[in-house]
Request: fold
Amino acid sequence: MLLKEILATKGPAVHTISPSDSIMDTVRKMVEHNCGSLVVCKGEEMVGIISERDILRTIAGSSDRLEEISVESRMTKNVYSGSANDNINDTNGLMSKHRIRHLPVLENGKLCGLISIGDLVNAQHQMLSMENHMLMSYIQS
Reply:
């Protein structure tokens, strides 16, 4: 299964934030959209990602108010990304190896979706369930 198949089911919606926004803006947006990360974009260009983990590190390491801390100063700048044609097994390996939970998906250099580790687990579960059903049907016939 390819990432584009997951995105076809999940949809291409990606929640973004500007690097000049504050960490408090990030928290509010994450709560509003019930998500664990936001892709940081300048216009159409992805420049980073900010996650719950980044926010916790900010809170633990700073006495500044969250309204005074910019996303740009706390975001992950070297972002791993995937392609719509990447295999979910390879993607799962990449995300596990680098301990990341959210992976932007790019097509021709443009952001086309976001895959979470939960999306991969769900897709693999569905594939295994279907395979199990087909094998059981074959055995019983």
